[in-house]
Amino acid sequence: MANSSTDNIDIELFKDDLKYIDQKFLQSIIQIFSFIYEDEKQFLLMTKKATYAYGEVICSWLSLENKLTKPQWISLLNDIKIVQVDSGSDFVAILTDEGQVFLASHVETKWETNKTLRLINTDNDHFKMIACGSYHLLMLRQDGHVFAMGCDQITCIKSSCESMINTGIENVKLIACGHFHSIVVTNSSEIYSWGYNVFGQLGLGDEKNRNAPCLVPFHNADSTRIKDIVAGNYHSLFLFENGQLWGCGSNENGELGLGYDIGQSTLTKLPFENVQQIACSKDQNLSLAHDGLNYYAWGKTMNGTWSSPRKLYDQHSSFASASTLLLESQTTFGLTSVNNLFESNYTSTVQSIRRLFDNPNNYDVEFIIEEKRIKVSKCYLKSVSKFYDDKFSGDWKEKNQVTISDYSYDAYYEYLHMLHMGEIRINHQNITEFISLAYSHGDEKFIKQCQTFISDDLNENTINKYHPLIKQYQTKELYGQLVHLCIKKMLPKITDNLLQNNENSLKFLDWFFDQQSFIE
Questions:
Q1: pTM of the complete model beyond 0.70
Q2: Is 384 a residue whose pLDDT tops 50?
Q3: Whole-angstrom distance, CA of residue 281 vs CA of residue 195
Q4: Burial class of residue 145, CB neighbours in 10 A (0-12, 13-18, 19+)
Q5: Which of 20, 106, 127, 424 has the largest CB neighbor count within 10 A?
Q6: In the CATH scheme, what is the code of domain 355-457?
Q7: What residue ranges do the domains of the chain occupy?
Q8: Which of 131, 156, 169 is closest to 208 using CA atoms?
Q9: Which of 416, 320, 423 is nearest to 369 (CA)?
Q10: Phi and psi for 149 in degrees, rounded to 5?
């Protein structure tokens, strides 16, 4: 996946692979990453304080002794938080919370890791996202610049396993790698792609390989921003914030879910709505999606080819869990958090919580908005929200119906859905209501989510929308970004306009000298 995965897995999914490890140690695992090298499954296991290697291959790459009963401590990563892990055909890349990138690889590759972890960036480079192709690596620096490493036919810029190559793309927010191709998305939702293109997976309208990043021609009529991107073996998927899913590339195995086997060399809307998360692997012709309640799959599975999305009716709590039905060996789809079920039945709890939301058979209060109703449980809302705890212990204590007039039905439904399901989709259309709702309900976590969305979306084209919100809610965290944007992007334009128009210059001077506080 392009981003650090939000999947939450049950460690028991891997009970056969980890059965020889002490159960007490397994209960301490908070994150897990698995990959397959020459049909052998390998693991990186993270506790709160340390990272461990488990498997003959990964241990040999790091000069560690492989023990069936004991994962091996990676001393270099002690007390370091890992935020993302990805792998290629013969290497693994690790991103820390301080923006460092480490590599481990097979001894006979060009990565020159020398059977240890290799730090590949300098003290001045801090990265926030990584993505691995089969033989290449992309790194997104915190300032929005993208760097590549790998062999020449993959990076398509020039051969470099020794040093980073600047791709020349700026203002990037998402990166993804397929088998032999790369995709990036900017903060303004521009798409760039390069690499292998025999199946049209670059979305450029042809099947010619590209040796440098190319702007993908795509007109988004809804002006909806891209939420996530993933790349498979020979196809690419784009998830938009309105829940729409678009794709391009090979469809020979149904991986685009179009109901037929003809591929698409331009971005094509897929017959699937209300998507919240997507996943696929660079090694597979399989696509997965989650709509907040259910998991869906299409493409090549061990049960045959599915040319259209199929709902997975068995209960699943993660993409990894869903993959057990579809692949010969389940995968974590990147670094994932662990829900340890040795002492509690997490999956059962999740399903129970979901049944408390808008369920006509299980509620004790209704929210009435725009003559529509949302059915919920007072007890549950009190347990997860101080706002609702205060209300249902006070003003709303005796009520079984509460009328909401300050917010739209859609916004309030999405917020209550988030409190039950843990996920919410923020976009241009709902951000104003959402941030108001977050502050009025004192929801610090949701406030942070709204602030992060504004921060990612703030540019010269959106400043008119977000300036009033930043001012209204005194969002000090965004003041600096706002000032920097004004100085860097807007003042030069104002200066050019004044230089070219004397009348405007005089009006500006009249306004300027009227602002006494400005010149005191």
A1: no
A2: yes
A3: 17
A4: middle
A5: 127
A6: 3.30.710.10
A7: 355-457
A8: 156
A9: 416
A10: -140, 155
